[in-house]
Write a structure and sequence with these properties.
two-stranded antiparallel sheet, 4% strand
Length: 473
Amino acid sequence: MLTSQQKLHHLYQRAGFGLSPSEWQRRQHWTVEQAIDDLFHEADASLPLGGYEEYEEEFDVMREQMKEMSRQQRRTTKKKLDREKRRLLITGLNRDWVHRMAATGQVGFREKMVLFWHGHFAIQTLFGGLARIYANTLHRHALGRFSEMTLAMATDPAMILFLNNQQNHKDKPNENFTRELMELFTLGRGQYTEQDVREGARAFTGWACLPLKGEFIYREGDHDEGQKTFFGKTGNWNGQDIIEMILNRPETAGFIARKIYRYFVNDVPHEDRIAALGQQLYRSGYDIGDLMRTVLSSDWFYEPENVGNRIKSPVELIAGLLKSFHARFDDPIALSVGQAALGQVLFFPPSVAGWAGGKSWIDNQRLLLRLQLPMILFEAAEADIPLPGDPEAIENAATIRQLKASVDPNPLLSMISGQPIDDARKMLLHYLLPHQSPEDLAWLGSYLPRGEPSRQMLALAIRTCSLPEYQLS
């Protein structure tokens, strides 16, 4: 059985990215029910991601300089300016989102839900404006109704471009989006036929976007107005009709419940629980918030076999470290490079299926980097970070980068300030590894530097976060 504090640790890790030292001191005696209520209040207050207007001043200067150039120079410089703007926007958006996850005054429940949905409705984009629209769509619907989110994703410009619905015309249907809609986003394999894919694609003809404006448009003249047979029903269906028919299938609710269970509870499915969650989701009209409250409130969520069994994704690992050590990335490019080295770059999953997760995070090369990450970040150690499996980066000699973060260890140290050294050590270990016995970790003491207690405790914290056990939540 878990203690009350261990339950809180588990809740805050799974529903968010852990707690900062100051927040742990404030909340460690809360009840689970009180903590869950607060998670939803926090989620309701979460604001959308910004637009990175701070870069515009720099771009304005470059635009002024272009006025003095020749036509050819202006053309070349404009291409460079557009490319630089896209690069800064996408990396800045990435950093802002990670910093939100790592915000010291909150858990990051809505941000965790957005990260989950990013892996579900996966897209790749290098355009910062489209990435922001996409992320804020997920942010808006993350705890709402899955039905509304699915329709929003079908009209999202980044999704339309990524899955080729921009090329879905009535005289030449493109089946890519409709196939992934059913296989990866709603029903799962084996729940539809090839005819359903073909007829569904016809229903989504004319659903397009204006990429530069980031707007959905419906091209009425490009929409197939003919009769379509989908799931055995014939009519002049459009894309919204297709989504409604998919959501009317209980199998869709079961598919979503399974993904939520495997992400937030245990990668090993528990069929009875998943079936009950699927039925609840279907009966509620696909209310995601209602389902998440059930999951987080269930006794089985806190059973020992569901605790400390999940390998943190790279983004979860980074956000948790930043939160515990009050750290930030000054250079957004460095963060993106670090994510690439660890295997999870936001807004650029490996495929439309998202990230595989689980043991795929810890191949031999990446596990070593993950274990070294606390020292790389918080001792500003000079470290060469290779990007595995990236031939283009190797070719461009861009495989080595330095990853650093600015750190303020004082909040962590203030948590144990004034305590005898043994008590301070136990408090620190309980905060960082609540499911490990401090006595079992006593051997860490032999690796600590001599001298001032605060220096010893900071070294202990970094060593603790470098243990294999810290890779689990």
